Amino acid sequence: MTFFETIKNAALAVFHSVYHILWGDLITIPLPGGSSLGLSLLILILIPSGIYFTLRTRFLPFRMFPEMVKLTAQTKESSQKGAISGLQTLFLSTATRVGMGNLVGVVAAISAGGAGAVFWMWVIALLGSSTAFTEATLAQLYKEKDPLYGGYRGGPAYYIHHFFLSGKGRDAKSMQGKGRRHSVIAVLFALSGLICWCGISQVIGNSVSSAFENAFRIPPLYTTAVLVIIAAVIVLRKNATVKVLDIMVPVMAVCYFVITLFIIFKNAGQLPAIFQRIFAEAFGLRQAVAGGIGAVIMNGAKRGLFSNEAGSGSAPCAAAAADVSHPAKEGLLQALGVFIDTLVICSCSAMIMLLAPAELTDGLSGMDLLQTAMEYHMGEFGVIFIAAILWLFSFSTFIGILFYARSNVAYLFGDNWLSQTLYKVLALIMLFIGGLAAYTFVWDLGDIGVGLMTVFNMIVLIPLAPKAMEALRDYEEGKKSVRSN
């Protein structure tokens, strides 16, 4: 064995070890009927944290849901050059949350865990919305002005930096012009994000080209070339990203929702049985005795956690860019984003699948299963629609993650157009490569990236949580004083 082969094997061994620690079953709990509940490190971090933040915010997802919805109507365009509104950041974060996972991921969760996985997906969304509120509010508290793009920037790299280098988060003043030193954890978070988003770029390219090949028999090279050219035109322009997503996100979400409503109304008679099945299998003795209750819970939990991204630190990169009158407003808008992703979009995918005859979908998985279900509901149009909506979901995700990357690139390499452009070019290359062939290693690299982001983000999120809670109290007291006057 040569020296280089030895180094390669050692690197792969480390890679697989890190992947197993983050995503593998770190703890296994035996359950009745011979089943077991495998808990990964990320599950052990995110679920207890979600419970903690839900309690600290006094059940914010339930108390303040009407306020979240109300804020979408109140949010206006920012008057500051280059800045974006809270509603625009909601579109931006929704663009990245809503992706391939909302289609095939939900189908995979139900295939492995049964209909009961949908219930646990809903529960995790309620917990995740409190986590999303906390990290988005902190991103607002520690944001700074962006000298390149205009407006603001920030995210976990910035509040992690303040926590370790500015008196444990007590000083929320801008870091600009102070000869910034780098925090090790903040650097690791930023690097993990850039690695993750490169991996996701390749997954997006492969997913889109595969779907179009299945639906339209278009060779992957043609689909990928068009995808990369359109993406390059948008992301290489200074501020085209937000303008494009302002149009794309509402259109794609509304189209998917309306089509699903049509399918639900068409099969309204089955709904009582579907909901009975969801709740029965979520807690059912049959699943416990059969040894499958662990799969039901964990597949629903994992789908919910990694679809809505709460706790991973991705969405705060958008939240920091918002020009809002109070930090808690952005926190509430991002909490609403979790509801949109999981309770609306993921539930749409679940209903499409569960309302199709089981004998028609047995033995199928992934995109084949979803396209077969849609073909049952809407004929050939259903197959074409799923391919088109996947393109929109995936394309908007790619544009969104490059917006996220801005602040992390700036933190690592400073304010210069060279580093910003080079990262965009790298992501476009990964998008092209992914469209032509699937490389499992790079897909796993993306999973490791998001896992490490979550770990580094959560190290600081809990000790900084009192800052977010203080902002929430201030916002609620301000609302009360306005009503009393």
Largest sheet: spatial strand order: 1-2
Task: State the end-to-end distance.
Answer: 79 Å
Low-confidence stretches: 171-179, 285-293
Strand portion, in percent? under 5%
Given helix and strand content, the structural type is: mainly alpha
Q: Quick one: overall form?
A: globular
Mean of the pLDDT scores? 80
Q: What is the number of E strands?
A: 4
Total helices: the number is 21
The amount of helix comes to over 70%
Largest sheet: 2 strands, antiparallel
**In angstroms, what is the radius of gyration?**
22 Å
Topology order in helix (H) and strand (E) letters: HEEHHHHHHEEHHHHHHHHHHHHHH
Summarize, please.
With 485 residues, the protein is mostly helical. It contains 21 helices and four strands.
Description:
By secondary structure, the protein is mainly α. 76% of the residues lie in helices and 2% in strands. It contains 21 helices and four strands. It has helices at 3-23, 41-56, 60-63, 65-74, 86-97, 100-113, 116-141, 156-165, 184-216, 220-235, 240-266, 271-283, 285-289, 293-308, 316-319, 327-354, 358-361, 366-378, 380-413, 417-436, 440-484, and strands spanning 27-30, 36-39, 144-145, 152-153. The strands form two sheets. It has a two-stranded antiparallel sheet with strand order 1-2. The protein has a two-stranded antiparallel sheet with strand order 3-4. Helix 7 (116-141) packs across helix 12 (271-283), helix 7 (116-141) runs parallel beside helix 14 (293-308) and helix 11 (240-266) packs parallel to helix 16 (327-354). The protein starts with a helix and ends with a helix. Mean pLDDT is 80; it is low at 171-179 and 285-293.
